[in-house]
Design brief:
CATH class: Mainly Alpha
Distance between the termini: 48 Å
Number of domains: 1
Strand content: under 5%
Order of helices and strands: HHHHHHHHHHHHHH
Radius of gyration: 19 Å
CATH superfamily: UbiA prenyltransferase
CATH architecture: Orthogonal Bundle
């Protein structure tokens, strides 16, 4: 029973269910790199690397923010500030997750392993950016956006600018929905001189418009990708579906009503990655 409780609290700490955000785009990057199905061994190690990197990043974020979380009414019940998990355990879990990521990168190819430490630095150290800049949302987007490029390198052992539109799209997507998520902490952030965010700097109404602009630019980059690497009717259907989901996401959030931010953040964005992976993945495999 104690093991089950600890496991549940650990999965809650790292928000394991949020793996549906970046993982589908990493798998999509792998499919694009292979021009179809990559070798199953490579695909398996990409999944292991993604789980390891994301677990390390989220655990590091919880460690770095534990004192801030203790004062925020929305986050004070998280595992570390509430004492459900110890700091010692969290540090150990972070080191284990990072080791799993490094092992997966080593199993993939030389370039993946050489770039693994810089990648790990990006996905973990973004946690501190909100201490000094309201651009922190784009740093989070960057941490997510490297996933497709990393998967491309994992498959091919080399980098190509052909994957940049997808990585850029994921960067803008992540930044946009993180801005929406940050709006619910506007009052708390405004009370803290040591925290920065776009809503705190420009207000909620303007921040929502910036998030919309990010997602419009995301769609533009996906159009560029379809022009460079045509995926036929399924490619455009997938793009249209993403556009509709983004429109729905932004319809759920208003400057005077943030009650549905969680639905916009969790539900809609989970659908986006999975739907695009399904439709574009089928198109890539059929073409290959």
């Amino acid at each position: 029973m104690r093991l089950l409780t600890s496991t549940r609290r650990t999965l809650e700490m790292i928000k394991f269910e949020h793996s549906v955000f970046a993982l589908p785009f990493a798998l999509l990057g792998a499919l694009l790199a292979a021009g179809g199905w990559p070798p199953w061994r490579v695909l398996a190690w990409i999944v292991v690397a993604m789980v390891g990197a994301r677990s390390a990043a989220m655990t590091f974020n919880r460690i770095a923010d534990r004192r801030i979380d203790a004062y925020n009414p929305r986050t004070r019940q998280r595992a570390l500030p509430s004492g459900q998990l110890s700091l010692r355990f969290a540090i150990g879990f972070f080191l284990a997750s990072a080791a799993v990521f490094e092992l997966a990168a080593w199993q993939l190819n030389r370039l993946a392993f050489e770039l693994s430490l810089p990648a790990l630095a990006i996905v973990t150290l973004y946690s501190y950016t909100k201490r000094f800049t309201w651009l922190s949302h784009w740093f989070l987007g960057l941490a997510m956006g490297i996933a497709p490029a990393a998967a491309w390198i994992a498959v091919r052992g080399s980098f190509s600018p052909l994957i940049l539109p997808l990585s850029g799209a994921v960067l803008l997507w992540g930044a946009g929905f993180d801005i929406l998520y940050a709006c619910q902490d506007y009052d708390f952030d405004a009370s803290r001189p040591d925290l920065f965010s776009l809503p705190k700097r420009f207000g909620i109404a303007r921040s929502l418009r910036v998030a919309q602009a990010c997602h419009l630019c995301m769609l533009t980059l996906l159009i560029v990708l379809l022009r460079l690497d045509p995926l036929g009717a399924l490619g455009w259907i997938g793009l249209a579906a993403v556009a509709l989901l983004l429109a729905w996401e932004h319809s759920l959030v208003r400057p005077g009503d943030l009650s549905r931010v969680n639905a916009a953040f969790f539900t809609v964005n989970g659908y986006i990655g999975l739907l695009l992976l399904a439709l574009w993945g089928i198109a890539i495999v059929r073409r290959g």
